[in-house]
Write a structure and sequence with these properties.
12 helices, single chain, binds 2-phosphoglycolic acid
């Protein structure tokens, strides 16, 4: 099965609007020569407050914009929160759900994550559902049960909706640590995720599902990771904050 490659830049809580605009300009200029968009989906995930401006800036470049989170309720008295239809109105075509930093710092529950996925789908936004085990989970040999449990939050989804999901495997011990999973560790977990997904939703849906790797992915290791059979691209944190390294990772996916 030929799945299209996908490279996403998760800016997290970094970059002013001005710096974000500069970074977009640089990425746009470097990618313009590459005719990338029939081979790789490239999506940037800036902070909420930059969405609208950067969406306009990247219009008709082939580079898409996504949000890092939404609230799990549709609307209402939730001071400081942002809804699915708000990010849609600012041009977000994708949204991260359940990034480990949110699971850890905001104690997001499976029920909330499922509600977010449903709200995104109702607004025609593609969710990127993140999964990842901690170092303690891996050291105690529990990585597969932990990932299977996180994935099971999606099992109540409608079968028609399941094909719109993207998954991102991001081992917590590899995020921002410089310690990347080996290509074999990444491939083994991606294959396991696809197998679990297949058991629940069928082989055809599982074969279609894009599964990204995230966790200290950089120009030096991207090509090897992306060559693995079940690794369909990357969710890039630190290395997405500089045009050179991000563009080199996109090139590794071409
Ligand atoms: P990192 O982050 O590339 O800085 O490890 C990845 C992520 O958290 O999405």
């Amino acid at each position: 099965m030929n799945r299209k490659m996908f490279v996403a830049g998760n800016w997290k809580m970094n970059l002013s609007l001005n710096d974000g605009e500069k970074l977009c300009e640089e990425i746009k200029a470097s990618l313009a020569e590459l005719e990338f968009d029939n081979k790789v989906d490239v999506v940037l995930f800036p902070p909420f407050v930059h969405l609208d401006r950067l969406h306009q800036k990247l219009d008709s470049t082939g580079i898409k914009i996504g949000a890092q989170n939404i609230h799990h309720e549709k609307s209402g008295a939730y001071t400081g929160e942002i809804s699915a239809d708000m990010i849609h109105s600012c041009g977000a075509a994708y949204c991260l759900v359940g990034h480990s930093e949110r699971r850890i710092y905001q104690a997001e529950s499976d029920t909330q994550l499922l509600a977010k996925v449903n709200l995104l789908l109702a607004n025609n936004i593609q969710p990127i559902f993140c999964l990842g085990e901690s170092l303690a989970d891996r050291e105690s040999g529990q990585e597969k049960p932990v990932i299977a449990k996180q994935l099971s939050a999606l099992f109540k989804l409608d079968k028609n909706d399941i094909t719109k999901l993207i998954l991102a495997y991001e081992p917590v011990w590899a995020i921002g640590t410089g310690k990347t999973a080996t290509v074999d560790q990444a491939q083994a977990m991606h294959a396991f995720i696809r197998e679990e997904f297949s058991k629940q939703f069928g082989e055809a849906a599982a074969e279609k599902c894009t599964i990204l790797y995230g966790g200290s992915c950089k120009p030096e290791n991207a090509k090897d990771l992306f060559q693995m059979k079940d690794v369909d691209g990357g969710l890039i944190g630190g290395a997405s904050l500089k045009a050179d390294s991000f563009v080199d990772i996109v090139k590794a996916a071409l």
